[in-house]
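ERR on first pass: missing label on line 2. Operator R.T. fixed the label and resubmitted. Corrected input:
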Amino acid sequence: MTQPAPDRALVVEIEQTLPMPLRGGFRCDAGELLALVGPSGAGKTSMLRVLAGLMRPARALVQVAGEIWCDSAAGVFLSPQRRHVGLVFQNYALMPHLDAVHNVALALLHLPRPERLRRARQWLDHVQLSPQEQSRGPAGLSGGQQQRVAVARALAREPRLLLLDEPFSAVDQMSRRGLYRLLADLRRELAIPIVLVTHDLQEARLLADRLVVMDAGQVLQQGSPHAIHRAPRNARVADLVGIQNRFRGRWVGPAAEPGHGLLRWLSDDDDTDLDTLPLLTVRDKGKLPPGQPVSWVIPGDGIRLLDHPPAGQGGAGELAVQVSDTRFLGEITLVTLALPSLPGVALRLTLAGPQPRALEIGAQLGVRLDLGLVHVMPLRH
Amino acid sequence: MRMDWQALTLSLQLAAVTLIVLLPGGLWLARWLAHTSFAGKAWIEALVVLPLVLPPTVLGYYLLVSLGGASPIGRWAAEHLDLRLTFNFHSLVLASVIFNIPFIVQPVQRAFEAIPRTLAEAAAVSGLSAWQTFWRVELPLAWPGVLGAMVLTFVHTLGEFGVVLMVGGSIPGETKTIAIAIYDRVQAFDLQSADRMALLLLLLSLGAVAASFFASARMAVRR
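pass 2 clean. output:
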C-alpha cells in the first residue's frame, strides 16, 4: 500500500432527515480501502449515491482530492458528469446493446473514436478480459467477467474516487478470489480513495483498512476493523460487526489498581447483582458512574481455554466452564461454553486448526479471560 | 375499373408528414411520462389515450368546431396567418397528428419504462450528458418499441377515415385520401375499383407491420 496522501483524500459530512435519514461523516485517504458495512436498509448505497452525485442530500459536504464536489452551504453540487468518479454498480449496469469494448469506450467519449477504442481495449486487457471476451455483449459474459468490464469502465474515467456497490454479492468463489487480487492491485496502482459497500463482515475485515459501520441511515462508528472489533462504540455496533461474546454487567467502581475498575458480570435475563457473580478487574477510563448498567465485549483472542477448572473465581479472569456444544467444521471448531456461576450465559469460541483436546459435551474446563481486552460500554435505554 | 393513384399518394404523404411532425414531440412526451411521476400523471396519460377510445367522428367533430372559420382559433389563423385550418392538407396533418398521439406515445413510453434506471445513471457517472445518454443508451434500447410505434402510426394514418372526412371533406388532390376514395367507389357501386384499392391497402399495411415485427425480433436475438 502507498503512503496515505491526505491531499487526495475523500472527506464526507452528511446531514439529512428527508426523504430518508442519512447522517454522519467519514474520511478515506488515498490508497485506502474503506468498507461501508451495515444491515440492508442502513443507507450504505444511498451514501454511495451521494458520493457519485446521483443523489443530492439536504446538507452535505463532499470533498475529493481538495476539490469540492458538494457543499450545500455554498450551494455547490457537481453533477456526476463533472465528478471524476468511478462507480461499479451492484448489478454492473452494463449497456446490453454494446459489447464490452464499447461499454468501456462510453466512458471515453471525449477522445477521438480510434483512440477511444484502443484505450477501452487497454483497460479491458488490464482487468484480464481476453480479446474474444472483449467483443462479446454482457449477455455473453459470466457474472465475474461482467464485473470486470464494469470495473474497466469505472477506471476508464480515470477516477479520483472509486466506488463499488456490493462487489461480492453476485460472483462465485473463483471470481471472488480474482476480485480480491484485482482490488489489491488497484489499491496499489491507483492511490485514490476506494469505498466499497458490503454486508459481508468477513470480507470487510479481510480487505478494508477502515470500516464505517452504518445503521438506520446513521454512521455509528468508524475506524480500523481491528479497533472496531476491540472497542465497539455501543452494543448495536458490537452486534453489527458480529462480535459473538457480548455480555451484560454493572459497573461497580474503581479498583485498587490505578486505571482499573470493577465490573460485575450479570446474566442476560436477570438484573440481580449477587456477590456470587464474577467480579472482573478491567481497564477504566473513569467515565462510568458506579451502578451504571453496562454492556461489555471480549474478542475471541482474549479467551483462552484451560484444561481444568480454576481454583479461584473471577478476579484474575479465570472461570470454570462446561462445554455445552461443539461443532467441527473442517478447519475450525465452534465451541459453546456455559458458565455454572452465570445461568443462561454462554461464551462462544472459534478454535482453528486440528483439535488437540477432546471437547466432549459436559466436560468441565476453565477459561482465562484477558481482562485487558475487555471493552465496556454504557447501556442506553 | 381504376386505381386512384392521387388518393394513394396523398395518403402516403399524409402518413409521412404526420410521422415527421409527431415523432420528436411524441418521443419527448413518452420519455417524460416514463421517467416522471407526479400527482396528475394519470390525467395526462388518459388524455393521451383519449383519441384511441373516442369515435373518430367525435374527435373530427370537435376539431372541426374548434378550428373552423367561425371559431376563435380559426378566425385568428385566418386573420393573422392567412391560413385556413379546415378542408385542406394542413388540417388533415393537424388532425392526424392529434389522432395518432396514443399510437406513438403509448408503445414508446413502455419501451422507455423497460430500460433499467441504473443504465442512465451509469451513463451519467461515465460522463455522458443527458443528450448523449438519450442517443447512445436510451434510444438504441427503446428502438424496437419506437420502430413499432412508427410503423403503427404510418399504417394507421394510411387507413384513416372518420377524422379525415370530418376535417377535410373529400377534395380530390387536397383531402381525398385512399380510404375516402374506397368509400366513394363503394357508394358509386364501382366495387371492382374498391376491391383493388382495399386489397392494396391491406397488403401494404400487413407488409409494413410484419416487417416491423421481423426487425424487432432480429434486434432481440442480437442482444
